[in-house]
Amino acid sequence: MSCKLQAVLFIACFFSASVSAAPQNTLLIRQGYLLPMIANGQDQPSTDILIRNNQIVQIGKNLVAADAKIIDARGKYVMPGFVDAHNHLWVTTMRGQFRNKQGKFFPVSNKLAKKMQPDDIWLAMYSGSLELLQSGITTTGDFFDNIHGPAWGDAGFRALEKSGIRAIMYYGGPDKTTKRMIDLTHLAELKKQSTDRVQLGLGWRIPRDLSSQQNWAMRDKEYRFAVQHNLPIQVHVSGDARAMFDALIDRQYLSPSLTVIHASDALPQQLNALQKSGGGLVLTPVSEQRVGYGLTLLNHFEDVERQGLGIDGNALSGGANMFETLRTAALTESGKAKDETLPDARQLLALATRRSAESIGLGELTGTLEEGKRADIQIINPNTLNMAGFGGGDPAALIVYSAQPENVETVIVDGRIIKADGKLQGINLEEQLRATNASAKKLLEHSESQM
């Protein structure tokens, strides 16, 4: 066994208490204000949810289950966990390094990425996943494009698995110039180990040189492999987005298997082609504006039905905060339109839950509160100063414009209680922070020593 792999296994054992070994058998959430986020659905005040193993089995009034652990949700909002449809969790330990003397995001992250060992990957992705969970995000689509070899891929997969989050790990390579082929053999091996909680996908990149036929041949092989193995695919369309989008259209890569990320400045006819193909779209308003892609205006993309929101790197966006993502999208839209009624707060919540799940092909499992769906739930406590002063009515705007991650009191994923009474369960947070910060410091020192 290699030293690098031994380090990964050591860390996995060190933090072995991260989640319980098996789901809580029966949970009963009592008398919460339910926002089911079903299309055209209605809120359900003072309603119970019965969970057995990992599934919602009943929603109604005055439910009884003698064997259930009771969660009192009176006066609180119960809704699906947020779905972060696109992230890069491996950059978590680069927080605070952008817009300093070191420079811009891409040069800095590319330089530091080369120094990351499997144990660094494990810590970054595990810590990043915990941050998502603490913030009410129960699902992530993680575009893992820093895999230097099987040990790196294994480390990322185990980190997601250990954290308790629901995830699709989009397996990518370390070379953003796309001159090296993704390790499809290892991707296939990991797929055999996947479950419906932690699945595999393809983190695909198209050539920077769109005229390179040799490079396109490699990319085509990766794409065909993913389709053959029924793997979802994500691809960045940014920078020269219009030319990249045209390349996808001309080469007939748009399909229900493909989710396009960013698509900043895409033309209406290009978005129409995506919609007709059944493909998905993920917008990441905070990161898109931070790296200078321009203003993310939701109404520009409104004709794409399969559409979701993403964090796009906890470090790049500043934090795993879907509330901030919603507010950024909302304020950009209303400011540009000079119309304070835009966009609709209820539609924003749907975009971060049901529609985000649908955008990455997980709509059958998560994104709404329905009988038969997996129990991926957040409970928001408004009994705090930052949410005080609400007299009643539709709480959507209250949640979008006032809630913060600290208002997320309880988080349940696949029937497991991950966060209760405002605290992550089974986590030695002090040790986790120490290890994560040590990895970040070591990464920066190694990089600077070779400049």
Which short descriptors sum up this protein?
451 residues, alpha/beta, TIM Barrel, 9-stranded mixed beta sheet, 8-stranded parallel beta sheet, 15 helices, globular, disordered N terminus, Amidohydro-rel, Metal-dep_hydrolase_composite, signal, Metal_Hydrolase
Descriptive account of the structure:
The chain has helices spanning 3-14, 105-113, 118-134, 150-163, 184-193, 213-228, 241-250, 268-277, 285-290, 314-317, 322-337, 345-352, 354-359, 396-402, 429-449; strands spanning 26-34, 44-52, 55-60, 69-72, 77-80, 82-87, 137-144, 166-171, 198-204, 233-237, 258-262, 280-283, 307-309, 377-380, 408-413, 416-420, 423-424. By secondary structure, the protein is of the alpha/beta class. It has a domain at 82-359: Alpha-Beta Barrel (TIM Barrel). A hairpin with a 2-residue loop joins strand 15 (408-413) and strand 16. The longest helix has 21 residues, at 429-449. 51% of the residues are buried. Residues 1-21 form the signal peptide. Belongs to the metallo-dependent hydrolases superfamily. ATZ/TRZ family.
- Uncertain regions: pLDDT < 50 for 5+ in a row? 1-22
Number of strands: 17
Radius of gyration: 21 Å
Q: How much is the average pLDDT?
A: 92
Alpha carbon gap, first and last residue:
31 Å
Kindly provide the name of the CATH class of the domain at 82-359. Answer: Alpha Beta
Protein name: Amidohydrolase family protein
Keywords: Hydrolase, Signal
Family: Belongs to the metallo-dependent hydrolases superfamily. ATZ/TRZ family.
InterPro entries: Amidohydro-rel, Metal-dep_hydrolase_composite, Metal_Hydrolase, MTA/SAH_deaminase
